[in-house]
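dumping the sequnces here before i forget
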Amino acid sequence: MTARRIRGAAVTAAIAVSVAACSAPGGTAGDGEAAESVVIGVASEPDTLSPLLGYGKDGNSKIFDGLLARDAGLRLKPALAAALPKVTDGGRTYTFTLREGVKFSDGEPLTAADVVYTYRTVLDGRTNNTAKSELDAVRSVRADGDDTVVFTLKYPYAPFAARTVLPVVPEHIAAKQDPNTGSLNTEPVGTGPYVLTQWRKGEKLTFKANPHYWGPEPEVKTFTMAVIADDDVRATRLRSGDLDGAVLPPNLAATFEGNDGKRTYEAKSYDFRAVTLPTGHPVTGDRAIRQALDAAVDRQAMVDKILDGAGRPAYGPLPMDDPYFADGIQRAHDLAKARRILDRAGWKPGADGIRVHDGRRAAFTLLYPSGDKVRQDHALAYASDAKKAGIDVTVESATWEVIEPRMGKDAVLAGFGSVGDPDFGLYTLLHSSLAGDGFNNMARYRDPAVDKALDTGRRTQAPDEREAAYGTLQRALVDNPGYTFLTHIDHLYVLADRWDGLTTQLEPHEHGFASGPWWNIEDWQPKR
Amino acid sequence: MARLAGRRALFAGPVLLAVTFGVFAIAAASPFDPVKAYAGTAALGADQQTLDRLRANLGVDEPFWIRWWDWLTAALGGDLGHSSVLRQPVTQVIGERLVWSALLCAVAFAVAVLLGTVLGVLAARRPGSLPDRAVTSLAYLLEAAPVFWIALLAVWLFALQWDLLPAGGLTDTASEHVTFGQVTSHLMLPAGVLAVSQLPWFTLYVRQGVGDALAEDPVRGARARGLAEHTVLLGHALRSGLLPVLTLIGSRVPELITGALLVETVFSWPGIAAATVEAATAVDFPLLAALTTLATAAVLLGNLLADLLYGLFDPRVKLSDM
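..and the predicted 3d for all of it:
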């Protein structure tokens, strides 16, 4: 198909969609015209589309680009920067040179001043950015001419380059408004492959290809993200042809198996479910109890029964697919071992089968956020496994408002996981200096060996040293489990089979909007 | 008439003030944390410093009466403030959504009044007849059914089973433009459900009113004079039978608003309902206050309208007495 014919088809498709979408929703499989327009159902929408307030900070924004981006294997690649940064001064100075000829979607050229403005505004305390602390390492950022940006860090921070996927906003627009309330929140202007044409909050976002995009022209000319919170409604609308694709929970995705013209994509993820074991509670603070729980849980059963097989057992915060995963820490479900540990530590079975030590029952409360079915199932399975070892876990559901003040004393069924670098997820989860700091280190976990490994992993640039540090950390976590890691959850997507070369990335906790098979929709090729 | 309207307007001021003050007080007492609502899912990964900084930036720790006073003085100056949860000026939120809510309510109300009158007259013609019993039982059944239940049933039947009408949204998901045809087809189900939920009140009132009127002397006299049945029914009985319906129109406005809230949620109709719910759970004071003021004003206007209509159509009522 020549470019002209593609354009012709796009116009025809646009007309056909606006006139006759009622009678022919979605089009048919293999239809070249319909393949240029994609409608995807997601569960939630962003609060804001302004990167200054946190939108797209982990990359994969369709409207904006960062200095760097990630490929399918999550390796960093240049985006707005012409190449990966030059790191000097012992890891304290990062120098980026910008790609030539990049324009914002309003036609204005990108300069180093835009990059500097973006980072300075995010770092400004008056900007309501929830992820500002992720850039804590930055001391200053300055432009060196029109095409060079220099970051100076407070301390050597190895994963800094991975933070520069943060989207860059146009200074000539953003500087004229209040970053907290300005129109950039709902009418973004960026350098990305698509521009937002319409955002009806709570209903859908519509995008079309950006005519000024610096990369190759996308084959998918328009796409729509329909916001449908209810899983069943999303599945129904996918089945009726109203949607081309959707993110679905495992049980609903399974109903599309063997459906002609639909393909299921399973994205592996960092998204773990774990039980926090607060050090402030006399029972969960006991190392023997933690170790026993770790041995008593049947992770594989949770994967099979709760996740319908769409997940993997979690032996630590890092999934087995991560390059930093410490091979050898995998451990089987071992109830006998759990009992041995408890016996040895002096937790003796009481009259009701629940173990007792110094007159204290081995009992604690496990909270989970109400309405989250997957977490509820995990919590109930955990309580049932613990009971077999003689530990009484009371499962309770509550809203986050109720859970938050109780996090220091009661266990919580938590879910989390960041991509990009082990430092991003692990430091805030485990470092003792962040114990009980907001939602960081919810279990108030303190372990000197873990702290040391986290600091090493953060500051050294040498890859082997980092790998050794994160290996030490994962083994220390097995010895002194502050959390019982249960599962890593696969994210499932069902899409009409009309495009070639769809891939998924290893995904973070959040999913569906920025990640999913559409993480690189600009590269999709319609099937011929 | 002007005096009635004037007096009501004077009365409306204090009512609106009290209502907005109450909204601020109740919202401040709610367990929802505006900072968490603002940060959304990001709050679950945020450190304490970030949350404290947001709290200070958003100024949510000020006592509610100070925030109310600030809001009120700004609102009187024409600035309705900025919605923290939708990240848009409140005027823009209302401007974008009110028109769709108004369309939904207006269509539903018109259908309910017209259809209710027709069914009511049909039932009143021969009390105890088959049409009467059918209409009355249907009305009682609908009166008992919750709006959201009817809405879900309608989605299941018309969108899923028969695939006749779209299940939600303002237009088809893939459609980029808001066209008349699209909106019409998407409006049918939500407006129909809302109309059906209001229908029993009008039907029963009209049936009662017309039934009573048919037994009154003027109608009996008209019949005796040999006037055609439809002249008697429509010209005499319906005119006096409709009087109670006029009062009803005003008093149904609050229910119409709450009904629209539920219907909009079920059908993902981009009206102000979703915004209202979000504003309430996110303790978004400026948006919540503006929307409550709007709803209160609608109710007050509805009542005024009913009284004015009553005064105009019923010669026994003097507006100056009201």
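Chain A has three domains: 54-178, 194-267+491-526, 272-489.
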